[in-house]
Write a structure and sequence with these properties.
The protein is mainly alpha-helical. The chain has eight helices and no strands. The longest helix has 29 residues.
Length: 178
């Protein structure tokens, strides 16, 4: 019985992934944009990620750099591109969906990256508490990847009191690394 549950869960995950990938393809087609092949991310999807990261990681005080100032997008893209091809494909599909979502869900029936920063923030603010589980999951996946890119930048560490040199979890040989 336990094996059957595992097989069913695996089948459900595969079906959900196929649904996500197909939805990403449909979104790209609706936007008249090329859809990535071979697990890559297109420049238009990178602009979407950059806009999302700018809103999600927007500093709330002057002691923190903006995502653009600290190179968060580059760090995020390096991380994403190091993932397995199937994961990169899912991320590309999510970015396609976020770029196209305002066309369907509002507010101005335009692409996400063309919304003003205030409209982007308002649009994204509805996702974490959505009554639709897939919408919440999509937001948290993108938020996680954006935050990882931002907080991995050394210029963000002092604002939260982090230091490699003082972290006992970092091996001694790496503590003096830049």
């Amino acid at each position: 019985m336990n094996r059957l549950k595992h097989i069913q869960a695996d089948a459900l995950r595969q079906a959900q992934t196929l649904g996500l990938l197909r939805a990403g393809q449909v979104a790209a087609k609706a936007l008249k944009e090329p859809y990535p092949t071979a697990g890559d991310i297109q420049p238009w999807q990178i602009r979407t990620l950059e806009a999302m990261q700018g809103r999600i990681c927007e500093p709330d005080n002057d002691s923190l750099p903006t995502p653009d100032e600290c190179g968060a997008l580059e760090a995020t893209l390096r991380f994403v591109r190091s993932m397995p091809t199937s994961t990169v494909e899912r991320m590309a599909a999510l970015l396609s969906l976020f770029e196209a979502a305002p066309l369907v869900l509002g507010p101005n029936r335009t692409r996400f990256s063309l919304l003003s920063p205030a409209e982007q923030t308002a649009f994204l603010s509805r996702w974490p508490d959505s009554r639709i589980p897939a919408q919440r999951a999509a937001f948290h996946a993108i938020k996680t990847i954006c935050m990882m890119g931002y907080w991995s930048r050394e210029s963000t560490w002092s604002a939260i009191g982090y230091s490699i040199g003082k972290n006992p979890g970092v091996p001694e040989r790496l503590r003096s690394a830049p």
